[in-house]
Design a protein that fits this description.
It is built from nine helices and six strands; from the N terminus they run H-H-H-E-E-E-H-E-H-H-H-H-E-E-H. It is mostly helical.
C-alpha cells in the first residue's frame, strides 16, 4: 500500500468518509436482507458477545474525517479540490478483480464518497486470476474489497487476518496493520475456557483493531439457498451444523406425490 496510509489518522479518515450503510443498501438491493452495518471484526450481530467497539469510527462522519486529514497535514485549498501535502495529491488506488460487478459498484461508490473529503480514488481493474497473487498478497493496493468466510469460532477463524506481521510473514493480514497488543488480546481469548471472559478479550482485541483501522467491516452477507418448498429442515444454515437425519419432505409433499 501507499506510504500515505501509514498514518493512522489518514486510515481513520478514509473509514469515516465511507458510508457503509449506503454500500450495503446498494449491494443488498432486492434481496430482502436487513441493512445493518457490521460493527465487530469477530462476531456477527446475531452471536452472543457481539458489541459495537468502533468508538464512532464506524459512523459516516465526513466532518470528523476532514479534521483528521487537516491534522495529518493534508490540506484542501477549495471544496472540490484534492488535498495535498508538500505538493503531493492525496490519491489512493482501489483495486478490484475483473468481472466482479459488485466490487466495481463498491469502488465507484467509495470514490464518490471520498472525493467529498478531498481524497482522490483511482479504480484499477486486475485480471481475476492475478487479483490475489499479484495484488492482494503483494500489498499492491491502497483499498480493496472482498468477503471473508467466518466460523462459529470467531478468533481462531480470524486471527490470521489481524495478526501483527513479522518480517515477510503477513499470514492473511493483507492490510499489514497490527500490534503486539492486538495479538495478546486474541491469544488470551484463545486460551480462555470461560465463555464470558473469552468474549471480553475478543472485544478488547476488536476495540484495538478499530483504532488501528486496517480493515473496515461492511455487513454480514446473506447465505442464499434454493430448496423445494416442501423440504423441511434444509436451507441457509449459517454457523449451525445441520442434522441430516432431520432433513426430509413434509407430509404435504408426500400426499401430493401420492395424488399425482
Amino acid at each position: 500500500g501507499s506510504a500515505v496510509l501509514s498514518d493512522v489518522r489518514v486510515r481513520q479518515a478514509v473509514a469515516l468518509g465511507i458510508n457503509r450503510r449506503a454500500i450495503a443498501e446498494s449491494d443488498l438491493q432486492g434481496l430482502g436482507w436487513p441493512i445493518q452495518p457490521l460493527d465487530n471484526h469477530f462476531f456477527m450481530n446475531t452471536q452472543e458477545g457481539y458489541a459495537d467497539n468502533s468508538a464512532g469510527l464506524g459512523r459516516y462522519d465526513p466532518e470528523r474525517a476532514r479534521r483528521l486529514l487537516d491534522q495529518a497535514g493534508w490540506r484542501q485549498t477549495g471544496p472540490r479540490q484534492v488535498r495535498q501535502r508538500h505538493g503531493r495529491p492525496l490519491r489512493l488506488r482501489f483495486v478490484i478483480p475483473a468481472g466482479a460487478p459488485v466490487s466495481r459498484q463498491e469502488a465507484e461508490l467509495t470514490r464518490a464518497m471520498l472525493r467529498r473529503i478531498g481524497v482522490a480514488v483511482d479504480i484499477r481493474t486486475i485480471p481475476a486470476a492475478d487479483f490475489f497473487d499479484l495484488c492482494v498478497n503483494a500489498g499492491s493496493f491502497d483499498i480493496t474489497a472482498f468477503s471473508w468466510l467466518g466460523s462459529m469460532l470467531p478468533v481462531s477463524s480470524s486471527r490470521s487476518i489481524f495478526v501483527n506481521p513479522r518480517g515477510g510473514d503477513i499470514q492473511q493480514n493483507y492490510s499489514r496493520v497490527g500490534s503486539a497488543q492486538i495479538d495478546q488480546a486474541m491469544d488470551r481469548a484463545l486460551r480462555e475456557l470461560d465463555p464470558a471472559a473469552a468474549q471480553r478479550y475478543i472485544n478488547a482485541a476488536d476495540r484495538l483493531i478499530w483504532q488501528a483501522m486496517g480493515v473496515l467491516p461492511l455487513y454480514q452477507r446473506p447465505q442464499l439457498i434454493g430448496a423445494d418448498a416442501h423440504l423441511a429442515n434444509e436451507g441457509a444454515h449459517g454457523f449451525y451444523t445441520p442434522v441430516y437425519q432431520d432433513v426430509g419432505f413434509t407430509e404435504a409433499a408426500e400426499q401430493s406425490a401420492e395424488q399425482s
